[in-house]
Amino acid sequence: MIDPRPASERTLIAWVWRNYLRKRMPFLIVALLLMTVEGSMLGALSYLMQPMFDDVFIAGNTSAVYGVALAISGVFVVRAVSALSHRLLMSWIGERVTAEVQSDLLRHLMTLDQAFFQVHSPGNLIERVRGDSAGIRQIFASVIAAFGRDFVALISLLAVAIYIDWVWTLVAAIGTPLLIIPVVALQRLVRRTSRASRAAAAQNSNRLDEIFHGITTIQLTGSEAREAGRYRQSVDEFVRAQLRAEAGSAGIPALIDIVAAIGFAGVLTYGGMQIIGGEKTVGEFMAFFTAMALVFDPLRRLGGVSAALQNAMASVERMYGILQTPPSITSPVPPRAPVPAREDTRIELDRVTFAYGMEPVLRGTSFVAEAGQTTALVGPSGAGKTTIFTLLTRLADPQQGAIRIGGYDLRDMDLAGLRGMFSVVSQDAALFDETIRDNILMGRIDVSQSRLEEVLEAAHVAEFLRHMPQGLDTPAGPRGSGLSGGQRQRVAIARALLRDAPILLLDEATSALDAQSEALVQAALDRLSEGRTTLVIAHRLATVRDADKILVMDRGEVRQQGTHAELIAQGGLYADLHRLQFKTEV
What we know:
The chain is an alpha/beta fold.
């Protein structure tokens, strides 16, 4: 489970800094210097208002026209160049950091066991990786830029205002204390509502993932309206949560505008009387007025940045929670047992108990699968057959008992080395939206063309490749949808052949195929299992009659074991299953 406890803001900022920002410090320094230049230009612009009004407009000093015009033009040019430069630089840093965070999240998620993925849906996790990572980008787009550019702009503008008249500045800021309590309250509201908004967004992604995965079932059952209604309900919940978050974010700039109204009213009243009385010039007032008018723009952004920071922290907190979730299946350091040799792959389950949550699946299961032989697992659904495959490959660990290969406990072996011992072909062949070649090679670059062609022939893939428009480079489609069931199975078998692992796990590999496809796939499986320790899960007993040993499972226990002939002679559950399927006595 992802740790639900909220992390402190200091912890989250320290995590982002330590893992992603510190290594990019030189680029951040350059960007901050450019922000400082851009921010200071507003102070320079407001200061130039005094000579423009007093020397040019009122005094009519023609010689000052060119100098003031050149100075103001220079301010805008410098501001434009510095703004463009730091925005491009910060965008580059933000995108690189976001990509790195996404990669780290995915890499960590792939270390977690099956129990984690049973609790957290794919849509929810996609939103964690893709949606929440936008919080990192927001830090660069809003938070750092505001603290760099807008803070300097605020300081430079206030410096000009104080230089002209500190009393006017004090009058303009008279309403500022009114901001403190409401802003603190709004910050807490934004953090809370942003967290709820991200959770609602994850639920939306989960709904879409379920709809697109189950589109065939939805269409065949006529439940389009039901699913559209469920998604609309989920979207409405997200909209409500998002609006609450946006309301909190918009509240801080609105409060600043109210304070600005109070300050300007005071300055216009007090300063206007001084100008009328000749104590101040129009140029001084315009410079002050420009500075104070401009000061509320960066002040508003700085006020909004606190809301943006809380919004970003809600996303960062969710990502941090994933990365703080430790994998429960790990390699011992150093490994306490070697990965067995190819010829030493005897599999032994010794009183293994396993449960998903509170529901027991295996209840003290024990058996032996001899090296180089085929062992079949049969029995009703829910007997625990597939769970045994899950435990053998350490996608989960048993709560009690031990599993050994070659006499060594799996938990004492290097995890990658252990999983390298297995090739798996299941009923639902897992293909990716890549070419057939990519789905077979799975990233390997050490396979010669002759070896690849040998595998294609052995798996009967070459037979259908001749009819493919691009041959081996034909896209398989999303989840292999561009291929038939039999073609997908043969691609999966070719992948397993190329892997050349010493242990083969077959999980209902032919149960969903027609007779012609089954014959081809079965021939490929027979070729694949030669010289390997093979475990087969099958509901159709005809496919395992020739197995060296058949284990009959029911309710998480091995009830019978032996050859087909022995089990028929014994009677019991296997004989009952056989009669049910074939309706004849052997």
